[in-house]
Structure formats: C-alpha cells, structure tokens
Amino acid sequence: MDQHDVIILGAGAAGLFCAGQAGQRGLRVALLEKAEAPGKKILISGGGRCNFTNLGAGPGNYLSANPHFAKSALARYTPADFIALVERYGIAWHEKTLGQLFCDGSAKQIVAMLLEECPSEKVTLTCEVDVASVTRGADGVFTVTADDGRAWHAPALVIATGGPSIPKMGASDFAYGLARQFGLKVVEPRPALVPLTLGGEDALFRELSGVAAPVRARAGSGKGKAEFAEAALFTHKGLSGPAILQVSSYWRHGEEVGITFLPDAATDWLVEAKRDRPRTHLRTLLRERLPARLADALADRLALERELGNVSDKDLRAAQAKLGDWRFAPNGTEGLAKAEVTAGGIATAELSSRTMEAAKFPGLYAIGEAVDVTGWLGGYNFQWAWASGFACAEAL
Ligand code: FDA
C-alpha cells in the first residue's frame, strides 16, 4: 500500500509550492499531476518570463465572494518572502511596471526552483495520472485511484488542480466536480482577465484592430466595481489590453464598460483649446494626442466637423464628457479559451481562511485558482497560489 501523509492533486503553481513546504516540514507527499510535466501554466506565464509576484499584492487586489478571505494567507506569505526564495536560487528578476516582477531569464527557472524545493525523500511527483476516483473511508483516509488502477492513500487531500481557463492546455473543472462530490459549494465560474467582444454599433470599433492607447477603464457596480489606468487595445473581436483584461474580471453580461480616453487631459481641455486655437478642428486635436485611426473614429462619432471657434462651449463640454466616459456595451468575452484565469470556484465560505481546510471535511483542503479568489493581472494570481499553498502546508 502506497501510504503518504498527504496527497496533492495538481502540480501547478499552488500544488508544487505546497508540496515543497509540506515536504520540508517532514511530511510524505504524493504529488499527482495529470499532464506529462509539472507547472505548464507557469512556463507560458508572463510571456515565458513568469510575472511571479507583485510588490503591492494585498487583499484589495483580489475578487472573491468574501473579500476578507485572502487576508490571512496573504499576510503570512508575502511578495517579500517569495522574492527572498527567488534570490536564494540566484534567479535574476526585474520590475517591469506597476510592481510586477518578472524573471530576467525564463519561467523555467521558477519551475526548476519549485521542484528543487521539494525534498526528494519526502515528495513523490507522479505525472500522467488520470484520476478515476477519489474516496474517503470511514477512517478518514482518502484514496485516489487512477484509471490504470494505481492508488494513493493519505489522511489529507489537497485540491490544487487550478481552474478551467485555457482548456487547450489540459485545464478543466476537475476541482469543482471534486469539491461538489464532498458537498462543498462552488461559486459559479466565469472567465476573467479576458478580452471583451463588441457587437452592434460598437462593432465598428473592430476596424481599429491593432490600435492601442492609454486609458482609464471601469466596470462593475457597487462593491464589485473597479477602475484601471493602463493601455487598452482594439482587436478584430473587440477590446483587449491590460486595462480591459483587468476590468473584464468585474464586468457582467449586460453591463457597460466606461473608457476615459486621454486620461491625462485637463477637465476643460477642449474649451481651453478653443480659446487658444479657434481655427483648429477637434479631429486635429485628437490626432495630436491619440493614434490617428482612433482619433478619426472618435472624431467621426463626435460629429463636430467645424472649427472649434464655431462650436459652442456646451457642445465642447459634451464632447469632453463623452471622451471622458465613452460607453461600450460588450456582448460577451472571448471565453475560457482566452481567459488568463477563472473567477469563482470553490466557495471560500466552505474553507478556513487560515488553513484552506474544508470545515465539513477535515483533511480536505483547496488552494490556488481552484478557490474563489481571483487576482488582478500582474503577478497577483501567482502570489495567491504561493500564499494559499503555504497556509495549507503549515496546517497539514
Ligand atoms: P495551475 O493551473 O497552475 O495548476 C493546476 C495543475 O493541476 C496543472 O498542472 C494541471 O495540469 C493539473 N491538473 C488539472 N486537473 C488535474 C487532475 N484531474 N488530476 C491531476 N492534475 C490535474 N498569473 C500570474 O500571477 N502572473 C503571470 O504572469 C501569469 N501569466 C499567465 C499567462 C497565461 C497564458 C495564463 C493562462 C495564466 C497566467 N497566470 C499568471 C495565471 C496563473 O498561471 C494561475 O493563476 C496559476 O497558475 C494558478 O495556479 P494553480 O496551481 O492554482 O493552477
């Protein structure tokens, strides 16, 4: 009989890190991975350089039905802790922008480090495991059986199989099915950090495919509302770029997304421009500040084809207001196929925020993206994977 102290399902960011920490605490860990190799999402992350954390990561950078849930784990394993680990392995890194830390070299270094962190005498990684069933005996021992008949047994089981975004890489909703099997609720999963699609009148903007501009983008309502100042990119399907990916996590079907073009312009900039350059056209002013194709598309829609001196201040202020809060009504997202993460997941109400253990099922834990905690774009999701994996390993 293959007896371990803990079985961890999924050798991605959270599972690998948790396995290393648990192994270093002396536990015998069976780390089971469906793919042929561990850490596939880490390898493609950050354009192959892995944006492994964010200097500013805190609870406010995460979406969850319970915004307080992530606090404890994030406070106990911080970006500084992960940076110290990366430095111990001599992995060179740099801050790209907005606190986002990337490897100078390659994401392969992070996977190699996570594997190195797993003491070989304690952690057994088995890849290409197709889990056929997970059961729990009356003695509280979990048994994971593979479709080829191999079985693993342990008094603790950690669900670290991630979310279903990018199914082409083998991602699936396995975690949710397993959680439901044990009676745990799942917050409806939805694609997040995902491009938005435009239809109807907005579809005309798709002609701008390839054009990018700095904006402030807003979406959501009530407490689930957020605004991001980053670049937006027009695509042949709609809107993308960091600002849009960020707001997509807050956007719900039927809602609008507000975009502030020229986010640095003074409040009354068009009226001031009229005083200074009354012979100028709005199109010219926009072209001075924005990519020409975008400037033309906005000027066409604002339809003020006169010298500014001949436009009333009221009309100019209306144009300023429209540029400051341009409303798009996305008709959808590009879905899980293009989503960097999945929002929703195993309900935090079912788990201890200190240990990630299920209240209903002592010995059952869930960590990483499988849980209803979703980070912003920029290294926040990996920080959650490390922090939740650490909290779990401390409790095992
Ligand atoms: P993760 O998906 O890493 O791991 C889950 C593991 O479980 C996988 O190895 C999977 O094969 C395995 N598995 C699934 N089902 C199984 C089963 N039935 N049995 C056994 N194993 C199973 N985040 C960030 O902070 N910075 C970044 O730069 C990026 N970049 C990025 C780029 C792209 C293209 C994507 C798709 C995503 C990112 N992310 C990111 C998000 C980040 O990759 C993600 O949030 C973490 O990998 C989540 O870690 P987990 O360990 O929870 O899941």
Helix-strand category: alpha+beta
Rg from Cα = 24 Å
Compute the separation of the termini in Å: 21 Å
Percentage of residues in DSSP E strands = 15-25%
How much helix is in the residues?
25-40%
**Main sheet: strand order:** 18-17-14-15-16-13-19
Task: Please count the helical segments.
Answer: 12
Unique ligands: dihydroflavine-adenine dinucleotide
Runs in which pLDDT lies below 50 for 5 or more consecutive residues are none
Q: Main sheet, how many strands, which sense, barrel?
A: 7 strands, antiparallel
β-strand number: 22
Organism: Erythrobacter ramosus
InterPro entries: BaiN-like (IPR004792), BaiN-like_dom_sf (IPR023166), FAD/NAD-bd_sf (IPR036188), RsdA/BaiN/AoA(So)-like_dom (IPR055178), RsdA/BaiN/AoA(So)_Rossmann (IPR057661)
Keywords: FAD, Flavoprotein
Protein name: Aminoacetone oxidase family FAD-binding enzyme
Task: Tell me what you see in this structure.
With 396 residues, the protein is of the alpha+beta class. The protein has twelve helices and 22 strands. A seven-stranded antiparallel beta sheet has the order 18-17-14-15-16-13-19. Strand 9 and strand 10 form a beta hairpin. Helix 8 crosses helix 11 (313-324) and helix 9 runs antiparallel to helix 10. The mean pLDDT is 97. The structure holds dihydroflavine-adenine dinucleotide (FDA). Dihydroflavine-adenine dinucleotide binds at residues 9-15, 32-35, 40-41, 44-46, 50-51, 129, 131, 160-162, 165-166, 170-172, 174, 340-341, 368-370, 379-382, 385. Residues 9-15, 32-35, 40-41, 44-46, 50-51, 129, 131, 160-162, 165-166, 170-172, 174, 340-341, 368-370, 379-382, 385 line the site of dihydroflavine-adenine dinucleotide (FDA).
